[in-house]
Amino acid sequence: MSSDESQEFLERLQRHPELYERVKGLLAVVENADGAALTADEAAERVVQEMRQIGHEALQAWATHKHAQVAHHGATRLGLQRRGKKKLYWLTRVGRIEVCEQLFSRQHEPDTIRRLFASTARVKCRGSSLGLERVVVDAGGGLFVCTSGREGL
Q1: I need a labelling partner for 35 at 20 to 30 A (CA). Which of 16, 47, 118, 143 fits?
Q2: Which domain holds residue 107?
Q3: How far is CA 106 from CA 35, 49, 75, 110, in A?
């Protein structure tokens, strides 16, 4: 990796302080900085915890950034009027992701609320991601096989 690439990566990472801290945490595990990971199993558990947290922080940052883009687009390019905000969250494999969604309406249809972020991101409040649904189905299928003793019943 060139020094220019390293510098660019560091600058991008510093624009996301929550991810910066998580990467530092992962490096601490790799380097066993606190000496807490005495066995391979302990190290593996700490790596998995850090990776889950990194995943959650990254997806939350994506949602926040995407919401800002969609809200700006709705107000400027589509000519929609802002009509308050509503909390929107959904469940993923890395945890609950939440944004305070900007609501919109057209000037001549003030009673028709448009939820641009939810529709463009294809999420539903209190819903779950496709990835989480797959994990749940896979886990449920495994439990079914284990408890019945026979596949396919």
Answers
A1: 16
A2: 3-148
A3: 59, 45, 10, 6
